[in-house]
Winged helix-turn helix domain-containing protein (Streptomyces angustmyceticus), 161 residues
Amino acid sequence: MRLEAGARFERGETSAGIAAGLRVGKRQVEKWRRAWREGGLAALRSKGPMSTERISPEQWERLEREPGRGPLAHGWDEGQGWTLARVRTLIGRMFRIGYPVQGVWKLLRRHGWSARVPVHRAIERDEAAIEVWKAEVWPRVKAPRRTWAPISVSRMRRDRV
């Protein structure tokens, strides 16, 4: 967007017109225009990611192995598994580096990790009975789909016609 704004600056468009066209605030466009006046299009180019990782690649490799040992090995119960707060604490314990919870989430996503929610199922669950119910009972219980039919838009009731 900044580079598009730069091209529009060169064509002489107004800040209000650029803001409306790019769907950004007028003040933001004016900020870009100041940077463009001082350094041209190069000043509008991205300067890269705003946050950098605080742990080295070697530390990341060590950290990546730890969840495999399980939460119990690190002093937590197995109930919740690995949460962002637990990974944050683990990073602090292992490397003496402080990360906010949001920073831990960004770090994990950057390295290809994603959130997993465990599936909780009742101990008494009978898979065979569930499949029989789905195949035999549910089709009988489920109401048939309504088909489209025109309705009267008249205010008169049908029994009076």
